Amino acid sequence: MALDIAPRARKVRILATIGPASRDPAMLRKLWLAGADAFRINMSHGAHAEHRTTIAAIRAMEREIGRPMTILADLQGPKLRVGEFAGGRVELKPGAKFTLDSDPAPGSARRVGLPHPEIFAAVEPGARLLLDDGKLALRVTAMRGGRIETEVEVGGPLSDHKGLNLPDVIVPLAALTEKDVSDLAFALDEGVDWVALSFVQKPEDVAEARKLIGGKAALLAKIEKPAAIARIDEILEVADAVMVARGDLGVELPPERVPPLQKQIVEKARRLGRPVVIATQMLESMIKSPTPTRAEVSDVATAVNDGADAIMLSAESAAGDWPEEAVKMMDRIAVAVEADPSHFARVHFTETRPDPTTADALADAAEEIARTVSAAAIICFTLSGSTARRVARERPSVPLL
Length: 401
Known about the structure:
By secondary structure, this protein is of the alpha/beta class.
């Protein structure tokens, strides 16, 4: 039996990542009651059995509460990682020589294996290689006999299987790994609503994933590579939605470029009527602290004012000490921002371009009429949900029923 719970007091949606700190059914319920509208299953971590249990718990809660709850399966994608080190860890010194090769033997402070053979043909002298989320930086000096010879520009500790980013290179990797294909089949069998494609570089990556999905779920393209920025207009045309994934994007690009790019991507997505999610480190300090920093509050507020359709919690809700409090805080910030009388004007400064169809023309007109006559709500009759989505993307100032 559905519970009598008031509708959300805001339009922007909160996407909460589920993990060890939040997969318990009691905590899932707390997150929804705190303000979470959708749940992200990170396929990079956990086994299928764990994810199946989580999805079942969300669907059970959905039936109990009587509200639709979106589930997004986030595929890991072709993440590059170095091999292992003898002893598990080394220290790279600035100015030292360091080689990446195809030898799987444990590495040292002079070399390590790179289990991605396609990378050796793509890298050229002068390219930058970033390790461990950009904490260490190498400069390629030469390519010799299937080895990438580099000089350490920014040193530090490096341990087994740390990530590798190549900001100056279009990585010649398939959009979907074998793990992704397996995870995708599992997610579709479990009836997820959305699939997120990681490390998208070109529109063809989205097309490849869409073929495998076969219309069983909507497809979100994660924008986290410079190559994707260069082709963002084409990617927006073929994706159902996009996510500004600021983690890897901020590693491969100078950090000061990310805020203006965030605004530009949101504006482009708004014009096309594509939902856009802002993600990564939004309330990062709340992994350990019950309260956020003032800068984090401003970051969330900026995303809402920019016109984001959803804002996402990552480790804050998946592995943090305060998952419920993080959702409550994000909800409070969003409600306060949307209550600002100037918020509606800011969001509607960028108008969504209606498609040249009768349905879109009616949706656009309904929003304008509701605004002009100060209607109490827009009531939308729909079988598939398409008409409701068309009206919603016009960002009406009144509730949509």
